[in-house]
């Protein structure tokens, strides 16, 4: 029994291969997966007709961004406004060339025992987010605070866009640890790329190592089938750590998405200094999903 227990509890450490958890975003729902499958077919047909996704064809989209800092006390809030502005600048350097601009609308700060951390999938998470959420479903609510119950070392997580109920609307957000901000305290993850990655999920993108048949976090094999459903991100079997130039984990099969692993892609797990791009196919997909799920009139005003 003890042996079994150690196997079970040993599994996350083996899977993560590190003390930190890069991303705690949960599995996407079947509706979002279905939209990816359908759009991948459209992309494929367009490419047969000679129409590739190009950055200069994307619409210009401005996303209102509401930042919420939470901490157990004002003394524990060590996130100055300048650091938040730096983070927004990092986000815009990654996204603006693809048509998305994130506009910092305001910053709220909440202190006290009830605001000491956000623990995913708890009543307290819903309480915190319900109290602070602003804007419509097309607007980004961006939380900066400790994540989890103190054991996880989670750097960030996001919700995916979906067809919304009231709770889904309230929970809709990106959450990051303050140590991941530019000039933050978490070594190797202190250039602001965690926020860029999580906003990728918020826009509907999957990990580059996504196994379409498995859950989104780390399990399964990203070499299989359609991976992340985006044609121009080469297949990748598992997350990249550090910056393993030349890594190629899906060789020798008949994939259409051949090529070296996309270790510089923001939707991988590499160190912040290694992450510097999205593919045009990913951003074409993000625009379609933003339009369908976040600007759709049935979804936008649930507040
Ligand atoms: Zn992620």
From TrEMBL:
<dbReference type="GO" id="GO:0006508">
    <property type="term" value="P:proteolysis"/>
</dbReference>
<keyword id="KW-1015">Disulfide bond</keyword>
<comment type="similarity">
    <text>Belongs to the peptidase M43B family.</text>
</comment>
<dbReference type="Pfam" id="PF05572">
    <property type="entry name" value="Peptidase_M43"/>
</dbReference>
<keyword id="KW-0732">Signal</keyword>
<dbReference type="GO" id="GO:0046872">
    <property type="term" value="F:metal ion binding"/>
</dbReference>
<feature type="domain" description="Peptidase M43 pregnancy-associated plasma-A">
    <location>
        <begin position="140"/>
        <end position="286"/>
    </location>
</feature>
<keyword id="KW-0645">Protease</keyword>
<feature type="signal peptide">
    <location>
        <begin position="1"/>
        <end position="17"/>
    </location>
</feature>
<dbReference type="GO" id="GO:0008237">
    <property type="term" value="F:metallopeptidase activity"/>
</dbReference>
<dbReference type="InterPro" id="IPR008754">
    <property type="entry name" value="Peptidase_M43"/>
</dbReference>
<keyword id="KW-0862">Zinc</keyword>
<protein>
    <recommendedName>
        <fullName>Peptidase M43 pregnancy-associated plasma-A domain-containing protein</fullName>
    </recommendedName>
</protein>
<dbReference type="InterPro" id="IPR024079">
    <property type="entry name" value="MetalloPept_cat_dom_sf"/>
</dbReference>
<keyword id="KW-0482">Metalloprotease</keyword>
<keyword id="KW-0378">Hydrolase</keyword>
<keyword id="KW-0479">Metal-binding</keyword>
